[in-house]
Specification:
Blueprint (H helix, E strand, L loop, with lengths): L1 H17 L13 E3 L5 E3 L4 E6 L6 H7 L6 E3 L11 E10 L5 E5 L6 E7 L5 E6 L16 E3 L8 E8 L9 E5 H36 L2 H20 L2 H6 L4 H27 L6 H24 L2 H28 L5 H22 L7 H38 L10 E2 H18 L3 E8 L2 H8 L1 H18 L5 E4 L4 E6 L5 H15 L14 E8 L6 H14 L8 E3 L3
Parallel strand pairs: 1-5, 12-14, 16-17
Antiparallel strand pairs: 2-11, 3-4, 3-5, 5-10, 6-9, 6-11, 7-8, 7-10, 13-15, 13-16, 14-15
Helix pairs in contact: 3-4, 3-10, 4-6, 4-10, 6-7, 6-8, 7-8, 8-9, 9-10, 12-13, 13-14
Length: about 575
């Protein structure tokens, strides 16, 4: 019995000693069968992965050591910290039924991606892509690193993919595409991206025009923000490297991380200008400026150092900037001083939400996905037009008082139509043109015959409403080249520019009388407005503008209050 126990003790000791030294068997994965019937094949769960801690091993070395390396199965959720390291991915694939297939690494921020496989003669075939290489030098140029697989011959081929990436963990979808599907996917992506950046360009142009025309700093800041946002997206999506700065590999690696940081600071600056926190607290305004300065400084520092810690700090400050921008908008909303703040908030929500996703991915709290990769496009497409519309309403509201003050020099304060001085200037010119062209213009004068009755029965406010109603009726009766004006306490005039006829002038007068007799809810008791009208074709004899107007006003004033004939033709 003692001997049996001693044997078991020895066996347990051997297992305890040998256990830590035992290496798990490398996962054995089958060959991926490729055919045109299945044009897209994800590689998650079908690929082995190993991280080279030195970052310098070659394809020959990895192939020679493959049987003894601690491989793991690459999954969609796998994340690899690769600072000063290299990720090796290995899979076997055989193309059946002809066709061409491509491997795509769906990330435009990977500095270096290399695909290796042995040709039929045993030599290595090497393809390279990534931000450290000019797109024009890629084996398959495009937004994302893409590699062509070996020609179809029905036999399995072993592929080795080497990835190097700093700053953030590598967690990118890997897929195999049949050639026609890859082309269709690229064309669709280019179409949607072209539409989005075309929209962004129109918004930038519209904002600049408004900023210059109205000297509106909010539009100027908005134009800068949209420009910075679009520039950051061009870098993050690989479009800048593909179309704008191909060959500038140094700038491309910098732009990938610098431009999104600048766009975050620009977004907070725009939120600060829209909400104007200095109205509530100088300290709050200084705090916002401090966050903007910290964002810009950290973005520059991260570009220089390129360390995980500096990138982490930038993402934390981005989260802080999002919180500050949301807090500023909420604060103005709560105070209720800005009627358009609801639209501003609606425009900011999708932008802040997608910016939040980007920061969470940078902090390794959320896995990369198409939503996190293209989310800013969706947020921009939804939010930027709303922000532009909100700024337009806000600008119009703020300019309204200025426009009203400027209009006092030519318009009547109560009715909003021209006053007598404006009419006389216009009438003088109309008479001169009529003389020169040997044509006739017409002047229609109106008097509210029941004005005193309305004031006596319903008060002065009702009488003032009758003036506004009368002005509205004149606007409806006037064409684009005519001019309506208030020329007395309850007198109005309508200038019909030449060429016109007596019939046209009389029809316009009858229209005004008929519309005035219709009951209106704008007056107490649905009362109506009654007009006495005098009409004349001008020029008449040697009368100038002032004399012509006085002649017609005298005519309407001479008409008795209960006259049966309310329209008087003066010279026809």
């Amino acid at each position: 019995m003692r001997l049996f126990a001693a044997c078991w003790f020895v066996v347990l000791l051997w297992m305890a000693a040998a256990g830590p030294m035992a290496q798990p068997a490398p996962p054995v994965l089958g060959t991926i069968e490729l055919s045109p019937e299945q044009p897209i094949v994800p590689l998650s769960g079908r690929t082995r992965a190993w991280v080279d801690p030195t970052g310098f091993r070659t394809a020959d070395q990895v192939e020679e050591m493959a049987a003894s390396l601690p491989w793991s199965v690459h999954q969609r959720s796998s994340r690899y910290e690769l600072d000063d390291k290299a990720l090796w991915l290995q899979f076997d694939a055989a193309i059946r039924g002809g066709g061409h297939f491509f491997l795509q690494v769906t990330s435009s921020t990977v500095p270096s991606a290399q695909l290796f496989y042995r040709a039929s003669d045993g030599r290595w075939v090497t393809q390279e892509a990534g931000t450290a290489t000019a797109v024009s030098d890629w084996a398959v140029p495009g937004r994302y690193p893409t590699f062509e697989l070996a020609p179809a011959n029905g036999t399995p081929v072993r592929y080795w993919l080497r990835i190097q990436q700093e700053h953030v963990a590598f967690s990118v979808p890997l897929r195999l595409y049949e050639a026609s599907r890859l082309l269709a996917t690229r064309e669709q992506g280019q179409f949607l991206l072209g539409a989005y950046f075309g929209l962004a360009a129109l918004i930038i142009l519209g904002a600049l025009v408004n900023a210059i025309a109205h000297r509106d700093r909010n539009f100027a800041t908005f134009a800068f923000y949209v420009t910075a946002l679009a520039a950051g997206q061009l870098a993050a999506l690989g479009l800048g490297e593909q179309h704008l700065w191909d060959g500038w590999t140094g700038w491309n690696e910098i732009a990938t991380f610098l431009l999104p940081g600048i766009s975050s600071a620009a977004g907070l600056w725009f939120a600060r200008n829209v909400t104007e926190p200095a109205r509530f607290s100088r300290a709050l305004d200084l705090a916002v400026w401090s966050v903007i300065a910290a964002l810009l400084s950290t973005a520059a520092l991260d570009t220089v150092l390129r360390l995980p810690s500096s990138h982490m700090l930038l993402m934390v400050l981005t989260l802080l900037g999002i919180a500050v921008a949301a807090g500023l908008i909420l604060m103005v909303w709560v105070h209720g001083e800005e009627p358009q703040i609801g639209l501003v908030a609606a425009g900011f929500v999708p932008l802040l939400a997608t910016e939040l996703l980007r920061a969470l991915v940078g902090l390794d709290l959320v896995a990369a996905s198409p939503l996190t990769r293209d989310g800013l496009l969706l947020g921009g497409a939804a939010g930027l037009p709303l922000l532009f519309y909100a700024l337009s309403l806000r600008s119009s509201h703020r300019r309204e008082a200025q426009l009203r003050a400027a209009a006092l020099a030519r318009d009547d304060v109560l009715t909003g139509i021209a006053h007598d001085r404006t009419l006389l200037q216009r009438l003088e010119g109309a008479i001169g043109r009529a003389h020169a062209l040997k044509q006739r213009c017409a002047l229609v004068t109106l008097k509210i015959s029941n004005f005193d009755a309305l004031a006596a029965e319903f008060g002065r406010e009702a009488a003032d409403r009758a003036l506004v109603v009368s002005a509205s009726l004149l606007r409806r009766a006037a064409t684009d080249i005519d001019l309506e004006a208030r020329v007395g306490d309850h007198h109005f005039a309508l200038l019909l520019e030449s060429p016109t006829t007596a019939e046209n002038a009389m029809n316009r007068a009858q229209e005004l009388v008929a519309r005035g007799l219709r009951p209106t809810t704008a007056l107490p008791g649905n009362a109506a407005v009654r007009f006495h009208v005098a009409v004349a074709l001008l020029p008449h004899e040697q009368l100038d503008a002032r004399s012509s107007l006085d002649w017609l006003l005298d005519a309407v004033n001479a008409m008795p209050p209960e006259a049966r004939k309310v329209i008087r033709a003066m010279n026809f």
